[in-house]
Amino acid sequence: MKSSTKQGVKILSTGSAVPHMSLNNNQISDIVETSDDWISTRTGIKERRLLTGEQKSIIDLAIVASRNALDKISMNPSEIDLILLATSTPNDLFGSASQIQYKIGAINAVAFDLTAACSGFVLGLVTASQFIQTGSYNNILVIGADVLSKWVDWSDRGTCILFGDAAGAVILQSCPYVDNSILNFQFNTDGTYASHLSIPYKESHQPHVLLNIYQGSFHPIYMNGREVYKFAVSQVPLSIVKCLNALNMSTDDINWLLLHQANERILNAVADKLSIDNHKIIANLSKYGNTSAASIPLALDEALEEKKISDNDIVVIAGFGAGLTWGTIVVRWKELQLA
Ligand code: COA
Q1: Could you report the per-residue pLDDT of 75-108, keeping only the tens digit for each?
Q2: Residues 6+ apart with CB under 8 A from 255
Q3: Is 198 in the pocket of ligand 1 (CB under 6 A)?
Q4: C-alpha 105 to ligand 1 mean position (Å)
Q5: What domains can you pick out in the chain, each with its CATH number?
Q6: pTM of the full structure
Q7: I want to staple 90 with a disulfide (CB 3.0 to 4.6 A). Which of 82, 96, 244, 272 is the partner?
Q8: What is the distance in A from the centroid of ligand 1 to the CA of 162?
Q9: In the chain, which residues have pLDDT < 70?
Q10: Measured from the CB, is residue 263 less than 6 Å from ligand 1?
Q11: What residue's CA is closest to ligand 1, atom 3?
Q12: Residue 6 DSSP symbol
């Protein structure tokens, strides 16, 4: 602990990475019985990127996204104090963050994984901001990355059409509290409905002959699409309103709505419920599908590249997904300090 006064948090830089290989809806219809029309109408997704090639993992994407964010501000990786990797698809159950720490040369950083599915990035951002606000760390790299293509059942048309692979990264830095960007957050979990969206671990039927220990393996993604849809459309607006109310703000104050990029119909339905104009929605899911923990930082990075977001804009960011876990962060955007 370096300081007893509360620090502010600013988002200093962003970066992202997507694999080269693109699979469009017509190509998916060669794999399962579906069509471009069905997928586009129900989800807004036109294509997704997939990580191909032997021994390619989430680490490869996360490294590119992280270097991208570091390069934009010419930051030396040794200046990073903490790396937080939000992912549900590590290539090691003990965690993948340490491999990123090693490979980008962040020699002074501690690194760990955080698992909260499609809400992983928003939870990661707030977790990191706590370390900054308490004065423990100055520079934190938060990565949202997932390669769900490795966990999809490519014969299940209800799920394989939805997901894509990507990584996004942000660098947070401490600043005077008056310049604080992360104005408020609001998070929720309801484990009652965990089985609606899961990559379940299933045990074998026979235990070890001597030890009575059951061992098993992880199975592909299972999803009850209708229930997940209803959950997102009903709960996300409530979380956003709660988070704004606590700041004495209203939905009229929102300049940009950045939701987890799951489905265009969910994005539009949430905006409609909150009477937010559709032109304030940040959306790129038609190109990438649902990239889980990567979707928000990827969309943020693209929106900044396109110069959509201006200084002092209010950006409402909301994540939702397996757990079920969901929540909102209200950000007052401060211009990136590009080198
Ligand atoms: N192509 C063609 N038909 C398909 C299909 C596909 N890819 N997937 C399902 N269908 C069929 C079903 O078999 C069903 O046929 P039936 O009526 O003959 O039984 C019909 O389409 C309707 O299926 P249903 O699952 O009820 O469709 P839906 O309208 O709920 O749309 C989703 C499915 C997945 C697009 C929708 O439920 C959804 O977007 N849910 C949220 C998913 C999500 O965002 N998850 C991640 C959250 S982080």
Answers
A1: 999 999 999 999 999 999 999 999 999 999 999 9
A2: 280, 309, 310, 313, 314, 315, 333
A3: no
A4: 43
A5: 8-179 (3.40.47.10), 182-195+221-332 (3.40.47.10)
A6: 0.95
A7: 96
A8: 10
A9: 1-5, 336-339
A10: yes
A11: 34
A12: P
